[in-house]
Amino acid sequence: MVRYGGEEFVVVLPGTDLEGALIVAENIRRGFAELEINQGGISAHLTVSIGVASTIPDHRHYDEILPRAADDMLYQAKKNGRNRVEATPPPAPDAVLKPIA
User: Which of 16, 22, 32, 93 is the most exposed place for a label (fewest CB within 10 A)?
Assistant: First the structure.
C-alpha cells in the first residue's frame, strides 16, 4: 500500500482478479468500520470509501488508465453514500487516453 494523494492510498494486488480485489477491498472497508477509536472519552468509528479497478496489464498505457478508473470508482463510492466499495470492469485495450488531471 502506498499513499497516492492527500487522503488516498493505492493497494496493488499482483495476480489477483477483480473478484479477489473486491474481497480484499471489502475486508479493508469492514476492518475500518469495526475499528473503534477512543480519545479523551470520545468514541468514534471510521469509514472508508474504496474504488477498485482490475486488469491484466498487456497494454503500455494501463499505468495511466487503471489509476484513473480506480479514482473514478472512488468518487462513485463517495457519491453513492460513502463507506462502500465500487468497482469497474477492466478498461478496453483500445480505450481513448486522456491526460490524468
Answer: 93
Over the stretch 64-81, which tens digit does the pLDDT of each residue have?
A: 788 888 889 999 999 999
The length of the chain in residues reads 101
Provide the 8-state DSSP code for 7.
S
d(CA 11, CA 25): 9
- 41: domain CATH number? 3.30.70.270
Distance, CA of 21 to CA of 27 (rounded, Å): 10
* Residue 99 domain flag: no
Beta bridge partners of 53: 88
Q: Is the alpha carbon torsion for 94, 89, 53, 101 positive or negative? A: positive
Active site residue 7: yes
Rounded Cα distance, 46 and 78, in Å: 14
